[in-house]
Amino acid sequence: MPELKTLGLFMITALAEIVGCYLPYLWLREGKTVWLLLPAALSLMLFAWLLTLHPAAAGRVYAAYGGVYIFSAILWLWAVEGIRPTPWDLVGSSVALVGMGIIMFAPRG
User: Where are the membrane-spanning stretches (predicted)?
Assistant: First the structure.
């Protein structure tokens, strides 16, 4: 079960990062209120803290997290922005998830 815990923590971390980046995007590109920067900053602080909860070496965690971030961003594209992912989006994000699994769960001596 540590694999599911790791994947779940990565997914929550990705959500925090995406929200922290999407809110300033709404302010800058969509003309929304500047007050969105406050929850954005809090979300990015949460993102940074969540990355520290993994017991693996920081570099390995950051590398593997990138794969989950790619997958999560494609889900965000669909769920929040209403843009259906292409088959290539799905294949690419699946490859990224496989890469995350190899990095995080490969046997180590």
Answer: 7-28, 34-54, 61-80, 86-106
